[in-house]
Write a structure and sequence with these properties.
Blueprint (H helix, E strand, L loop, with lengths): L8 E4 L6 H31 L6 H18 L2 H7 L6 E3 H34 L4 H4 L2 H27 L8 E2 L6 H7 L5 H32 L5 H29 L9 H22 L2 H19 L1
Parallel strand pairs: 1-3
Antiparallel strand pairs: 1-2
Helix pairs in contact: 1-2, 1-3, 1-10, 1-11, 2-4, 2-10, 4-6, 4-8, 4-9, 6-8, 8-9, 9-10
Length: 309
C-alpha cells in the first residue's frame, strides 16, 4: 500500500481532562523536571571539574547524565505545556521527531548502561589489565558505539512507523507520541510492523537486561575472593548500577515486549520511565557513591569561595 498521510496533526488526550488535576500535575511535573535537569547537570559539572573523578566509570556517568537530560527533555516539557493547553495538538512531523528522539536517547542510555557494566566487570575481575583495556581511546570508542547503536535502533523504529498510512482518526490516548499508540491509528494491517517493533525494541531490551544481570552475577561471584572493605565498595557501586538498570529496563520490557496493544496502565508506566527514573538516577549515583559526594562538596566550597571574592 502506498504511504498516505491524510492526517497532518495528532491530538493528545493527556493525563487527565480535569482542570484541577491538570494544575496540580503542572506544578508537580515542573518541579520534577527542574530537579532532573539540575541533578544531572550537577553530575556532569562535578565529573568534568573534579580531578579525582577521572576514571572511566565517571567518564561514562557524565555522558549518561547528559543523555538523561536529553531523554527527559523529549517528552516532559511538552507534557508540562500541554497541561495548561486547551488543545493538545502536535504536527505529524513533530510527532515523528518525538518518536525518533525518544528511541534515540533511550537506545543510547541502554547501550551506555551495558558499557558501564562492562567497565565494572573489567575493573573488578581484571584489575591488573584495567587501565590497558579501558584506555581513554577505548572509552571514547565505546561511547561513540553507544550513540551509533541508539541512532540505528531509533532509525529502525521511525522507518517502521513512518511507512504506515494515517488517514484518521488522529486522537492519541497518551501524552507523547510513541510507536504503540501510533499503531492503533494506522489505517492498514499492523501485525507484521508490531512484530518488528517487538524484535527491535522489546527483544533488544530483554537481551541487554539479561546480559547486564549476568555480568553483575559474575562480578558478585568474583567478589567472594576480595577483602570485606573491597567487597563493600564494589557492592555499593554495582548496587547503584543494578538499581538504575532495573528501573530503566523494567518499564521498557513491559511496554515493548508484548503485542501491539495499549493498556490503561501504559500512561502510568510511561510516567515512570520518562519522568521518575531520570529523576532518581542522580540521587542513586550521588547518595551511594562517596567519591561523588566528596567531589560535589568540594565543588560547592569552591563556588562559595568564588562568590565571596
Amino acid at each position: 500500500m502506498a504511504k498516505t498521510h491524510n492526517v497532518t496533526e495528532f491530538i493528545f488526550l493527556g493525563l487527565s481532562s480535569n482542570p484541577e488535576v491538570q494544575k496540580v500535575c503542572f506544578v508537580m511535573f515542573l518541579l520534577l523536571y527542574t530537579a532532573t535537569v539540575l541533578g544531572h547537570f550537577l553530575i556532569v559539572l562535578t565529573v568534568r571539574s573534579s580531578r579525582t573523578l577521572g576514571s572511566p566509570m565517571y567518564f561514562f556517568l557524565s555522558y549518561l547524565s547528559f543523555v538523561e537530560i536529553c531523554y527527559a527533555s523529549t517528552t516532559v516539557p511538552r507534557l508540562i505545556s500541554d497541561l495548561l493547553a486547551e488543545r493538545k495538538a502536535i504536527s505529524l512531523w513533530g510527532c515523528m521527531s518525538q518518536v525518533f528522539f525518544i528511541h534515540f536517547f533511550g537506545g543510547i542510555e541502554m547501550f551506555l548502561l551495558t558499557v558501564m557494566a562492562y567497565d565494572r566487570y573489567v575493573a573488578i575481575c581484571k584489575p591488573l589489565s584495567y587501565t590497558t583495556i579501558m584506555s581513554r581511546q577505548a572509552c571514547a570508542l565505546l561511547v561513540g558505539a553507544a550513540w551509533v547503536g541508539g541512532f540505528v535502533h531509533s532509525l529502525a523504529q521511525i522507518l517502521l512507523i513512518f511507512h504506515l498510512p494515517f488517514c484518521g482518526p488522529n486522537v492519541i490516548d497518551h501524552y507523547f507520541c510513541d510507536v504503540l499508540p501510533l499503531l492503533k491509528l494506522a489505517c492498514s494491517d499492523t501485525v507484521l510492523i508490531g512484530l518488528l517493533i517487538i524484535a527491535n525494541g522489546g527483544t533488544l531490551s530483554v537481551i541487554s537486561f539479561v546480559v547486564l544481570l549476568a555480568s553483575y552475577v559474575v562480578i558478585l561471584l568474583h567478589l567472594r575472593t576480595r577483602s570485606s572493605a573491597g567487597r563493600r565498595k564494589a557492592l555499593s557501586t554495582c548496587g547503584a548500577h543494578v538499581t538504575v538498570v532495573t528501573l530503566f529496563f523494567g518499564p521498557c520490557i513491559f511496554i515493548y515486549l508484548r503485542p501491539s496493544t495499549t493498556l490503561s496502565v501504559d500512561k502510568t508506566v510511561a510516567i515512570f520511565y520518562t519522568v521518575i527514573t531520570p529523576l532518581l538516577n542522580p540521587v542513586i549515583y550521588s547518595l551511594r557513591n562517596a567519591e561523588v559526594k566528596k567531589a560535589m562538596r568540594r565543588l560547592w566550597v569552591r563556588a562559595i569561595k568564588l562568590e565571596e571574592r
